[in-house]
Specification:
Length: 769
């Protein structure tokens, strides 16, 4: 047999290749996965331009001080320095901010937090820029910082707008209602840093028309453009933001106080200017999760059913408001958790201090209250001698129930089903008291005490988050879908931050049009706005816009065929690139039907409106909600207080699974982030000074800290008002897992565990039972 014949015979005998993943419901791999793996993905820190200058920012070493003078003469005289800018060089608005514009581009009279920008320098070498920034002489009158949010109510105003950012009183039901048992608690949640992967970096390039282009890892490019245009004194059309590769984001990815000096320097010098922040600068500049103080009193009857919840919630916003108003609304609205509470009286405040600014971090507001109300549920169970899961089941929220805000839950709310799933899942085996299994013990092979000191605990957490914006926020996104020569292109300003939007957009177009090759265009502000990449917005709003545009293109594609065969387009279907009619008379391919034509359509998606909470904390403030239940199993060394999370069993309300692999990864990542909140992550700021602003002093969970995550149930009850019926999946595991871990540590130790992260001394038991 010849080689050619043998090859042909082998080819005939070989099995057909597996078809590539396709459309909604398939585990389509990310389009950028290979580039990121090979190191060729274009991050902002990799950008370059001819005639490039380097920038550096001078930041305040004090959390609170009066600026007496700023002398830039020494910096300006240094060889290689091209420009030095301060507040005097800001041609437009002096203030900016994500939610509230109350933060100066550069501090002018008063410094309000450690690391606040004072001046910025552009030079021909990064070392020269840093030395020149250090050469700017600032004379301060150091003031006593206000770092305790409780003291902010009585302190002198730290800001022209005062120290109180927002107060929400929520009144629901009968204030005289009382239960047969009462449990109380005081809880503290620490300051979590979003710790974005990769350097915060940007490039500003001046334009011939006197404008500027900003190349940034922005998560909300249009908002960043508008803030920049206002600060630069330019029309928005003369400022363009081009989104570079975003190396992951669990919060606002780029600090606007980092972007604005960059653009000012480019406009001042007429040259491209690049700024790459150190990790220390990132810790000092961007926002963090709100540290929170919570006081709770729960009333319940003898069966463990909730009668009334009273709470006080105090958010430390840091020096500026940012998105603290939105975070407080979520905290107050969800202060009772996913439980039926007929009477609720909640007081919430967000206040300014001289601590680092707080803002949007995944699950803001909802995460803090979840840790507190779940601790209260454990106390009720202990006082009544009931199983903690059973107490939660007796109070579980369901579709049709009413929140303490007065809003009826119209979306799927399978809280009881989620709880039952994690409760009934088999527990992991106990570790053996053998040397070869020491790695199972808390602290690792060298860090644990005696195996006899280890106690196992099982605890529960049930959490909820809202999706999209709230309280009247106009959530809208626009997308365009084009098809030409068998290739589809999606144009949408939704930024891919790791949540998988670009993959989802490809799947939607594949599903709707039967086109295999789909490209998602790079994002810039020449496209219509799509909003910020948070709270599941792009899955819902941007994905909905892509779907609508694709369906409009589908109609354009099918109408000529339907007209030719005398039928409606509804009688035609597209499957695996083929167009067929219900009766089999018509059968052709999408490529043949296109016949070289270019088809395109633009569409918007805007969810139903919401309303602000009124003076009593009442109102239909949220578009939709998502729920999660987690059972945590931990091992605690009760002599040294070390904790190992053995397993987290997760059941989640997802609406519809759009990409199984991607969804699983998002849940596992969210759970792991929550473990960091529970055990290790706390940015310490004694007297307002950020201590150890690096990844050595700030303990992120690593792969060695990640527990076994068992996804035991994904409830696919579609939300009829959401495109595809899908819900956001990333935030609610972050919200729920810290509460579950704390619950398990309480079960293991009998200690109250009322602070996150859990300190070792909180898990030490002085007497072994």
């Amino acid at each position: 047999m010849s080689n050619e014949a043998a090859t042909a015979q082998a080819a005939e005998a070989a099995p057909a290749p597996e078809p590539l993943p396709h459309g909604i419901g398939a585990s389509l791999p990310p389009a950028d996965a290979r580039a990121k793996t090979e190191g060729t993905f274009p991050y902002a820190a990799d950008l370059w331009a001819e005639g490039l200058l380097w920038a550096a920012v001078l930041r305040s070493p004090h959390p609170h001080a009066r600026i007496l003078s700023i002398d830039t003469s020494h910096a300006r005289e240094m060889p290689g320095v091209r420009a030095v800018v301060t507040h005097e060089d800001v041609p437009g608005s002096m203030l900016h901010g994500r939610g509230t514009a109350d933060r100066p581009v550069f501090a002018s009279e008063v410094v309000r937090h450690h690391g606040e920008p004072i001046a910025a320098v552009a030079a021909d070498h990064p070392d020269t820029a840093r030395m020149a920034a250090a050469a700017v002489i600032v004379e301060y009158e150091v003031l006593d910082p206000v770092t305790d949010p409780e003291q902010a109510f009585e302190a002198e105003p730290l800001h022209p707008d005062g120290n109180l950012i927002r107060h929400i009183p929520l009144h629901h039901g009968d204030p005289e209602a009382a239960g047969e048992i009462v449990v109380e608690g005081l809880y503290r949640i620490g300051r979590q840093d979003p710790a974005p992967i990769g350097a915060e970096a940007g490039l500003a390039v001046p334009r011939p028309d006197g404008g500027v282009e900003l190349y940034l890892a922005s998560t909300d490019p249009h908002a960043d453009r508008d803030a920049a245009a206002a600060a630069f004194g330019l029309e928005p059309e003369r400022v363009k933001v081009v989104v570079t590769g975003v190396p992951g984001a669990t919060a606002d990815r780029e600090d606007q106080g980092f972007q604005l000096p960059l653009g000012l320097l480019a406009l001042r010098t007429g040259c491209p200017v690049k700024l790459t922040a150190t990790r220390e600068e990132s810790f000092l500049g961007h926002v963090h999760r709100h540290p929170t103080l919570l006081r709770y009193r729960h009333h319940a009857d003898a069966e463990g059913r909730l009668v009334k919840v009273e709470a006080q919630i105090l958010l430390d916003a840091g020096a500026y408001a940012d998105t603290s108003s939105e975070a407080l609304a979520a905290a107050v609205a969800f202060a009772c958790g996913p439980y039926v509470v007929p009477n609720a009286f909640i007081e919430g405040w967000a206040v300014r201090t001289n601590n680092p600014p707080s803002g949007h971090v995944r699950g803001e507001g909802a995460m803090q209250v979840c840790a507190a109300y779940e601790a209260q549920m454990d106390k009720i169970a202990k006082k009544l001698g009931l199983d903690p899961a059973e107490v939660r089941l007796r109070n579980a929220l369901a579709t049709g129930d009413v929140l303490p805000t007065g809003q009826t839950v119209t979306c799927p709310a399978p809280v009881a089903e989620l709880l039952q799933a994690v409760r009934d899942f088999p527990l992991p085996p106990l570790p053996k008291d053998a040397p070869e299994d020491e790695w199972l013990l808390p602290g690792g092979p060298e860090g644990a005490g005696e195996p006899g000191a280890v106690r196992r605990g099982v605890g529960y957490g049930v959490g909820m988050v809202h999706m999209l914006g709230a309280e009247g926020a106009d959530e809208v996104s626009t997308a365009t879908v084009k098809v030409h020569d068998g290739v589809a292109t999606v144009l949408c300003a939704a930024v891919e931050t790791g949540q998988g939007f670009t993959t989802l957009a490809r799947q939607i177009v594949q599903e709707t049009l039967g086109v295999d090759e789909v490209h998602v265009a790079p994002v810039d502000t020449d496209q219509p706005p799509a909003g910020a990449g948070c709270r599941g917005r792009h899955t819902w709003v941007s994905g909905g816009a892509v779907e609508r545009a694709a369906k409009m293109v589908r109609t354009q594609l099918l109408q000529p065929l339907a007209h030719k065969f005398g039928m409606s387009t509804e009688l035609l279907q597209i499957t695996d690139g083929k167009i067929t009619s219900y009766d089999g008379v018509l059968s052709t391919t999408v490529t043949e039907a296109l016949d070289g034509k270019e088809l395109w359509a633009t569409a918007q998606c805007r969810p139903h409106p919401t309303e602000p909470l009124n003076e009593a904390g009442q109102g239909d403030a949220f578009v939709g909600m998502a729920f999660c239940a987690i059972r945590a199993v931990v091992d605690v060394d009760i002599e040294i207080g070390s904790v190992r999370v053995v397993e987290l069993a997760v059941a989640q309300d997802v609406g519809r699974v759009l990409n199984p692999a991607q969804l699983t990864a998002r849940i596992e990542a969210g759970v792991t982030q929550g473990v960091g909140i529970a055990l290790t992550e706390n940015l310490r700021t004694p007297r307002g000074i950020v201590r150890h602003p690096d990844l050595t002093g700030y303990a992120l969970p690593t792969a060695l800290d990640a527990p076994d995550v068992r996804i035991v149930r994904l409830v696919e009850e579609r939300d009829v008002v959401a495109p595809f019926g899908a819900k956001a999946v990333s935030a609610v595991p972050v919200v729920t897992s810290p509460a579950a871990v704390a619950s398990a540590v309480r079960a293991a130790t009998g200690r109250p565990v009322n602070r996150l992260p859990i300190r070792p001394q909180a898990a030490v038991v002085t007497e072994r039972g």
